[in-house]
Write a structure and sequence with these properties.
The complex is a heterodimer of chains A (about 220) and B (about 300).
Chain A: E1 2-6, H1 9-15, E2 21-25, H2 30-33, H3 39-51, E3 55-60, H4 68-75, H5 79-84, E4 87-90, H6 94-106, E5 113-115, E6 117-127, E7 131-134, H7 152-155, E8 172-173, E9 176-180, H8 182-192, E10 217-218, E11 223-224
Parallel strand pairs in A: 2-3, 2-4, 4-5
Antiparallel strand pairs in A: 1-6, 6-7, 8-9, 10-11
Chain B: H1 3-8, E1 13-18, H2 34-40, E2 48-51, H3 63-72, E3 77-82, H4 88-100, E4 105-109, H5 130-142, E5 158-163, H6 170-183, E6 187-190, H7 196-206, E7 213-218, H8 223-232, H9 240-247, H10 254-269, E8 275-279, H11 287-294
Classes of the chains: A alpha/beta (about 220), B alpha/beta (about 300).
């Protein structure tokens, strides 16, 4: 999922300055899991905005706002409400905001689309409602087969491919002592699997052309450019 | 001169380390800046002096400029190069520049994490790492860049690497050291350990690599410095007994006590390594005294 955190109310109000009628669009996908943009959070923010003198004229929460197939069926029937709004505030990831903006353009509306959240990474939920971890950077060149299913590109603070730096202390990362050193985790895992020899292989520099942004995925062909 | 040449002559190599100033250095006939003066003070006692590269991620004068200045004063620099601040184009370009400017030795490092420095909001690069930098630098020595393009003239650099004898698990660190050797490392400079038995185990396990290892020694100048290192510097563990030993003398005797500790430690460790790398943090003046005492203990 895409991890999100709530922007402070002061920043949201700054973004909505001069826009009194607000349409709220949440996301019952990742943002719901992060407790930042599901139906409940949209309702709560609606109350808060009303208390700040805003008029919330629409509250909708598509199942996955980043996917036009899910967002369009929810937003299309309420185009007139969107047209009436001074601004749309999206409680979703950066993708959800931009799909919403894209759909307003498709509907022929020129209306500011703002975000109420910060996107903080591709996250995996470890403890539902409590803890999610960043474990993948979508580098386009997965090496998990070589590293015991633990990604050093993401979980090593320096993204090292050839082994640990010299800074680990008692198995913890020098950059954050609350976190395990990714390479010690990999070493222990590979040792348990009887595959330590694999770690002796020179991995070589990563091909960052595969992560050059913005990438486009042609789904049918399985092709990325 | 390339350090590899000295190792070939079976010499016990002595190096020290200085960190460039945070500022521009334009001498205009004036006295050399402090970091150069510190190196000059021990010119006759060391074979080369490392110039650090934005050490601890704190922005300073670059090691290439520092190395060139050192050459101008007749000393051999070891150009430290980290992967934190430059991508693969910049690193290769700087290696070509270093060799073109007369530098013979480079120490290939990954680099400290940006969070330890004074530009914490900076984007850290780590496009490549220390093992890959060694591999790339060896390619430049062979006459091609990392994309396989031929150079008009190959570099001729002695390639050094770092090692951390205190790393746990040590076998994982040894695995990485082996990768560094295969990638092109021709000598190692270690982080310090203060227990000779600990170093003995490390020396025994690395002697088969066939690459000279220089024991690195950070001079503990005060009990406070020992504690600061334990709390803030990754990869170095200063024993409480050493901190207490420093604390057992009045402040004005710290330098004499530090000298005594260095001599004691190096008498045990010098026979097990191919050289000593001092990290004196401003106390370069103790190096001549220490060397005079430990010379008989170097391997014959």
């Amino acid at each position: 999922m895409i991890g999100t955190t709530k922007k402070p109310m002061t920043e949201i109000l700054q973004a909505l300055e001069g826009h009194d009628k607000v349409a709220l669009v949440g996301c019952d996908g990742c943002a719901k899991v992060c407790l930042t943009g599901g139906t409940d959070e949209v309702a709560a923010l609606s109350k808060d905005l009303e208390a700040q003198g805003k008029q919330v004229i629409l509250e909708v929460t598509p199942e996955r706002t980043c996917n036009v197939a899910k967002a369009d069926p929810v937003l299309k029937p309420v185009q007139d409400k969107l047209q009436e709004a001074d601004a749309v505030l999206v409680l979703g990831c950066g993708g959800a905001v931009q799909i919403t903006r894209h759909l307003t353009e498709v509907y022929g509306l020129t209306i500011p689309v703002k975000t109420g959240l910060d996107s903080v990474g591709h996250m995996d939920t470890l403890v539902p409602g409590t803890l999610a971890l960043e474990q993948c950077q979508e580098c386009g060149q997965c090496i998990l087969n070589e590293t015991g299913g633990i990604c050093p590109v993401t979980k090593c603070a320096k993204g090292l491919l050839e082994g640990p730096c010299g800074g680990a202390q008692d198995g913890k990362c020098e950059a954050d002592l609350s976190r395990d050193c990714a390479w010690i985790l990999i070493y222990n895992r590979m040792q348990a699997l009887g595959e330590l020899d694999k770690l002796k292989r020179y991995m070589g520099p990563k091909d960052y052309s595969k992560a050059a942004r913005p990438r486009t995925l042609y789904i049918k062909e399985g092709r990325v450019t | 001169m390339k350090l590899t040449e000295l190792f070939r002559q079976k010499k016990s190599v002595i190096t020290s380390e200085v960190g460039p100033v945070k500022g521009c250095v334009r001498l205009n006939g004036g006295p050399p800046p402090e970091f150069l003066q510190e190196a000059l003070n021990i010119k006759d006692y060391v074979d080369a002096v490392n110039i650090t590269d934005n050490q601890s991620a704190v922005m300073r004068l670059g090691p290439l400029a520092g190395s060139v200045l050192m050459k101008q004063y007749g000393m051999d620099p070891i150009f430290q190069m980290t992967c934190r601040d430059r991508n693969r184009l910049a690193l290769q370009s700087d290696l070509l520049s270093a060799c073109s400017l007369g530098i013979d030795n480079v120490l290939c490092l990954t680099g400290d994490h940006i969070k330890f420095g004074d530009h914490k909001a900076a984007k850290q690069v780590f496009d490549i790492d220390s093992v890959q930098l060694l591999h790339i630098a060896r390619g430049l020595n062979e006459g091609h860049d990392m994309s396989g393009n031929q150079l008009t003239k190959a570099t001729n650099l002695a390639l050094g690497a770092a090692a951390t004898p205190s790393f746990k698990p040590l076998d994982l660190h040894l695995l990485k050291m082996e990768k560094k050797v295969k990638a092109g490392a021709e000598f190692f400079q270690t982080q310090p350990v203060y227990d000779p038995r600990h170093y003995e185990e490390f020396a025994r396990k690395t002697e088969g690599f066939g690459v000279p290892v220089m024991f690195g020694l950070v001079v503990i100048k005060s009990p406070q410095m020992g504690r600061f290192i334990n709390d803030n510097v990754a990869g170095i563990d200063v024993p409480e007994s050493l901190i207490q030993e420093m604390a057992s003398v009045p402040k004005e005797q710290y330098k004499a006590k530090a000298t005594e500790i260095c001599i004691r430690l190096l008498k045990d460790i010098a026979p097990m390594c191919q050289g000593i790398h001092f990290m004196p943090f401003g106390w370069s003046d103790i190096i001549p005294t220490v060397l005079a005492e430990i010379k008989p203990y170097f391997p014959k």
